[in-house]
Amino acid sequence: MSSSSSKLVLGLSCSITIGIVSYVHLKQQADREKMHEGVVRDMERQQKRKIENLYLLEKQNELTKKLKRELGS
């Protein structure tokens, strides 16, 4: 009886260990994917901001040229 109960305990311990290791591995993988998605979103946000800033700069340049023409006349 001792032999079969020790085999049962060993099998149960191995199963639990494999389950824990698998869970941790999958959790780390999911966390990495979330972090990568955050980086991609940040890059997209930076690109949008850059485009908006270029648009505002161009608009400001046009207004400056218009003001110089008006003052020069």
Explain briefly what this protein structure is:
The chain has 73 residues and is mainly α. 97% of the residues lie in helices and 0% in strands.
Task: Compile the SSE list and pairings.
Blueprint: H1 2-72
Poorly predicted tracts of residues: none
Tell me the series of helices and strands, N- to C-terminal. Answer: H
Total helices: the number is: 1
Pairing-aware structural class of the strands and helices? mainly alpha
Distance linking N and C termini: 108 Å
Count every beta strand, where a strand is a DSSP E run of 2 or more residues.
0
- Which strand-content bin applies to the residues? under 5%
Pfam family, one: PET117
Main location: mitochondrion
Transmembrane segments: 6-26
Protein name: PET117 polypeptide
Description:
There is one protein chain. This protein has 73 residues and is mainly α. The protein is built from one helix and no strands. The radius of gyration is 32 Å and the shape is rod-shaped. InterPro entries: Pet117.
Keywords:
73 residues, mainly alpha, 1 helix, rod-shaped, transit peptide
